[in-house]
């Protein structure tokens, strides 16, 4: 899947769905995306980007050194595909972005029992003792399947 980074900047809303055939459950997770690229200034997100880069396989890292995905493949330069994989300790390539989904809602559908639940994230008011940090709670609501 090619993620249009420019489109995410305009509209970060995203949804991911998983279905588990053995339990016959479906989960739909929605929220907003953050793209963490080389220019991102959030140090925690940059640290996460480096951790993911470090934990990727060599072939996974190698793909980020290839020519731009989705463009016509120029066969006149076959060496473009033979570059060595960057090592896990090598600097993160600028072409590598970390995509983070900040989850606001989770919908669970249990097909065996015909039950459906919506879980919504709610941030409580800032607590003065936490110097502005807001507590997060999740509210569960049974809904019609």
From TrEMBL:
InterPro entries for this protein: Pyridox_Oxase_Alr4036_FMN-bd, Split_barrel_FMN-bd
Domain annotation Pyridoxamine 5'-phosphate oxidase Alr4036 family FMN-binding: ranges: 7-36
Superkingdom to which the source organism belongs: Eukaryota
GO MF annotation: an example: FMN binding
Protein name: Pyridoxamine 5'-phosphate oxidase Alr4036 family FMN-binding domain-containing protein
Annotated organism of origin: Chlamydomonas reinhardtii
